[in-house]
Amino acid sequence: MQSASDRHEYPAHWEADVVLRDGGTARIRPITVDDADRLVSFYEQVSDESKYYRFFAPYPRLSAKDVHRFTHHDFVDRVGLAATVGGEFIATVRYDRIGADGMPATAPADEAEVAFLVQDAHQGRGVASALLEHIGAVARERGIRRFAAEVLPANVKMIKVFTDAGYTQKRSFEDGVVRLEFDLEPTDRSLAVQYAREQRAESRSVQRLLTPGSVAVVGVGRAPGGVGRSVLGNIRDYGFTGRLYAVNKAFPEEQKELDGIPAHRSVRDIDGPVDLAVVAVPAEHVPEVVAECGAHGVQGLVVLSAGYAESGPEGRERQRELVRHARAYGMRIIGPNAFGIINTSPDVRLNASLAPETPRPGRIGLFAQSGAIGIALVSRLHRRGGGVTGVTGVSTFVASGNRADVSGNDVLQYWYDDPDTDVVLMYLESIGNPRKFTRLARRTAAAKPLVVVQGSGTAPQGHAVRATRLPHATVSALLRQAGVIRVDTITELVDTGLLLARQPLPTGPKVAILGNSESLGLLTYDACVAEGLTPSPPLDLTTAAAPEDFHAALARALDDDHCDAVIVTAIPGVGEGSAGDAALAEALRSAAEQVPGKPVLVVHVELGGLAEALSAATSTAPQAAAGPPKIRADHPFRALDRLRATPVPAEPSAPGNGDRLIPAYPAAERAVRALADVVQYGQWRRESAEPGKVPAYENIDEKAAAALIDGLLTRGQGLTLGTEDTCELLTTYGIQVHRALPAATSDAAVQAAATLGYPVALKATAPHLRHRADLGGVRLDLADEEQLRRAYAELTELFGAPDELRPVVQGMAPRGVDTVIRAVIDPAAGAVLSFGLAGAASQLLDDTAHRLIPVTDREATSLVRSIRTAPLLFGWRGSTPVDTPALEELLLRVSRLVDDHPEVVAVTLEPVVVAPRGLSVLGASVRLAPPPARDDLGPRTLPAY
Question: What is the pTM of this model?
Answer without folding.
Answer: 0.84
